Amino acid sequence: MALTYANYLQVEKLLELQTPQSSPPEHDEMLFIVIHQTYELWFRLMLHELDGVCRDFSANRLYAAIHTWKRLRTIMKTLVGQLDILETMTPMSFTSFRSRLETASGFQSAQFREFEFALGYKRPEMMKPAAGEPAGLKRMESRLHSRSVMDHFYDYLEHQGVEIPRPLRDKPLESPTQPNAQIQEALFRLYKSPSHQESVILFELMTDFDEGQQEWRYRHVKAVERTIGNKEGTGGSLGVEFLKRSLFQPVFPDLWAIRHRL
Ligand code: HEM
Fold it and tell me: What is the pTM of this model?
């Protein structure tokens, strides 16, 4: 069979994947499904791009890494922007089908946890909500036990002559990124060094991306607040109160810690 637009992209299969639960049908449930599926696809691409960045960092390929961070930053902005579409759904409209979601929640997104783990924001306890999905669990575990983007970033810094403190190299793969004063000093020196200004472009793109992921958390919690107020989440958390705890958490803390000195 000749390759066509429809069979290459498996469009018919894709169109079978939206299965609203409400009966009689609630108009906005389609929006709710499509927007979540769209996010999952973008998560998939971001994980793919982060894998590429890790390889580039370890091989000291600065330009390739810059190129990919530009893409990642742009996807992140798109993810933030898409929340505007979700916010066209009123609380009344969401209430009309919310009970049909039972305990389903973004809390159970295995790819979102993979994304956090890949970036070095490792909280193994957060795998619990998605533990019922064997394929997702396997992927989350693999990410948890793998080197994060930050570990590969240390490889890149080493290529630039930075001595990476032993405790950072020896830390268990499962532990989260910790801010480190020596790394901050090294970043500061690179920022000020005329011969490392191309690395500075990279650091700024990573900062953009980090700001983007924090922005997503903020916009998501506001979307949640305007839609369900202080109700508990379908995933069983306190809802808005729970989500507020991860606001303003950078994934690259060392890049933020030096900004007042630049
Ligand atoms: C009206 C729409 C939405 C509501 C009311 C909502 C509500 C919530 C609530 C209450 C939580 C906390 C966990 C729980 O108890 O359920 C949560 C977590 C989460 N939601 Fe949403 N959400 C909405 C849209 C979205 C969208 C479009 C996405 C895109 C993927 C998403 C992804 C997530 C993720 C990844 C978490 C886990 C966050 C974390 O653990 O830090 N949500 N959501």
Answer: 0.97
